[in-house]
């Protein structure tokens, strides 16, 4: 029962590793205990964005004069969401894997020795060995807060929030991170009475300081009650009690207080840029994705997976991955893009101004409202904001943030600029098309002083 490579975890990260090594001629097995395709396909990225999209489309139409009426059909939105999950059936994903010469092993995989993986499934326990590499891609799981009563209270996590078959009468969302704000807006627009409990003074506190207030304003416009500085102390069915004595009630409670790596001790596996796990002799154990704690984002995990697969292939052929090559996930350190699919959207890449200064950089910050011909055509009364953070020593971008309707499509240009270390002087000659929202790039560079 030997393979060249054994990947534990059949989500998008594991799929990318397995595809890369199998395509390179290495016999590859992929172990999955639930559904091939993982969290993103069935309980996270795809269903959550499907729940949001219909409401965004309706709101966008209503912001343009000449559109009259319109409403959401909640049942149809949920049906569309279910279509994106293939009704939680992974047979199509399994067929794809097998067509790519990836052997799918059903069960719970565990590293039980050097180059050894034990799979415990419905048919019992089987031990497999890897000639070249074992790759851990087990992802992450919801982090439960230490609240009185949490163990006795049925709550929603992100899984229930994205797979629910009916709209809850009322929903309390605990947590002002990405999952919290996205699900608060999705269910509010589908007809639920939603209350969002945020522990600090704004949602999305790790992003630039203007982001959270703009997102909170968008949520409130959809009827979400946003409770700031709301640290929870206890929970029971239908009721959340805050430390300041406030009581928040709802028919359902979504706990969205973060995620932790899916390891035995909930601690991340430390890796180098090629994915090798630190402290393991023999250079055979790799990891990628959420389990590394580097960037809990599907696209970044897939990027790491491609790097790991490439590194394994190169080492199997006697070569070492070169610095900043496809076998090293070095962009993890400089340009991690992220989109929060609320309305307004948030699109961010690189470092915040605060992070850049803390790292000792001499930075110049350019803040602007998004007010160009393209935005005014896009929506009547378009409201948005952007920030550009420039390293003055190198005259290159180290961080860019956009907030506004449909700004996600602006993000890749910022990512390319940061990864490519393009100077602001060269960016001046990247002429944005008129009339598009991208013209805000010209306004940012003008404000910078070019």
Automatic annotation (TrEMBL):
Cofactor(s) this protein cannot do without: FAD
Domain Pyridine nucleotide-disulphide oxidoreductase dimerisation: 336-442
The keyword Cell inner membrane appears for this protein: no
Domain called FAD/NAD(P)-binding: residue spans: 3-304
Gene3D superfamilies, A to Z: 3.30.390.30, FAD/NAD(P)-binding domain (3.50.50.60)
Keywords attached to this entry: FAD, Flavoprotein, NAD
InterPro entries noted in UniProt: Class-I_Pyr_Nuc-Dis_Oxidored (IPR050151), FAD/NAD-bd_sf (IPR036188), FAD/NAD-binding_dom (IPR023753), FAD/NAD-linked_Rdtase_dimer_sf (IPR016156), Pyr_nuc-diS_OxRdtase (IPR001100), Pyr_nucl-diS_OxRdtase_dimer (IPR004099)
Domain of life: Bacteria
Protein family (similarity comment): Belongs to the class-I pyridine nucleotide-disulfide oxidoreductase family.
Entries under PANTHER family matching the protein: DIHYDROLIPOYL DEHYDROGENASE, MITOCHONDRIAL (PTHR22912:SF151), DISULFIDE OXIDOREDUCTASE (PTHR22912)
Name recorded for this polypeptide: Dihydrolipoamide dehydrogenase
Organism: Lentzea cavernae
């Amino acid at each position: 029962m030997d393979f060249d490579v054994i990947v534990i975890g059949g989500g998008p990260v594991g799929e990318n590793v397995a595809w890369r090594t199998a395509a390179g001629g290495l016999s590859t097995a992929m172990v999955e205990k639930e559904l091939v395709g993982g969290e993103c396909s069935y309980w996270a990225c795809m269903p959550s964005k499907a729940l949001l999209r219909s409401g965004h489309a309706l709101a966008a139409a209503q912001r343009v004069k000449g559109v009259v009426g319109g409403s959401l059909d909640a049942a149809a939105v949920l049906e569309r969401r279910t279509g994106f999950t293939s009704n939680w059936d992974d047979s199509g994903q399994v067929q794809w894997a097998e067509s790519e010469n990836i052997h799918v092993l059903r069960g719970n995989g565990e590293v039980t020795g050097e180059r050894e993986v034990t799979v415990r499934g419905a048919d019992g326990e089987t031990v497999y060995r890897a000639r070249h590499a074992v790759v851990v891609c087990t992802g992450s799981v919801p982090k439960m807060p230490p609240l009185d009563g949490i163990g006795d209270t049925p709550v929603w996590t992100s899984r229930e929030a994205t797979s629910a078959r009916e709209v809850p009468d009322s929903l309390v969302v605990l947590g002002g991170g990405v999952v919290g704000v996205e699900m608060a807006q999705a269910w509010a627009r589908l007809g639920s009475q939603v209350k969002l409990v945020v522990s600090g003074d704004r949602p999305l506190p790790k992003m630039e300081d203007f982001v959270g207030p703009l997102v909170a304003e968008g949520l409130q416009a959809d009827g979400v009650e946003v409770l700031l500085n709301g640290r929870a102390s206890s929970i029971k069915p239908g009721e959340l009690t805050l430390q300041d004595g406030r009581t928040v009630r709802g028919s359902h409670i979504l706990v969205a207080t973060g995620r932790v790596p899916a390891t035995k001790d909930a601690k991340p596996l430390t890796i180098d840029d090629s994915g090798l796990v630190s402290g393991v002799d023999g250079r055979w154990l790799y990891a990628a994705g959420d389990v590394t704690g580097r960037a809990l984002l599907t696209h970044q995990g897939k990027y790491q997976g491609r790097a790991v697969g490439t590194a394994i292939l190169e080492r199997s052929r006697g070569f070492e991955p070169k610095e900043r090559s496809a076998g090293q996930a070095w962009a993890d350190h400089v340009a991690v893009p992220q989109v929060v699919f609320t309305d307004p959207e948030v699109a961010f890449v690189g470092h915040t101004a605060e992070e850049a200064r803390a790292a000792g950089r001499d930075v110049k910050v350019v803040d602007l409202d998004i007010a160009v011909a393209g935005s005014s055509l896009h929506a009547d009364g378009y409201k948005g904001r952007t920030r550009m953070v420039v390293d003055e020593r190198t005259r290159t971008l180290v961080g860019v943030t956009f907030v506004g309707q449909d700004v996600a499509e602006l993000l890749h240009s910022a990512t390319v600029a940061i990864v490519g270390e393009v100077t602001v002087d060269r960016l001046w000659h990247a002429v944005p098309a008129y009339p598009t929202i991208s013209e805000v790039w010209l306004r940012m560079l003008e404000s910078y002083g070019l």
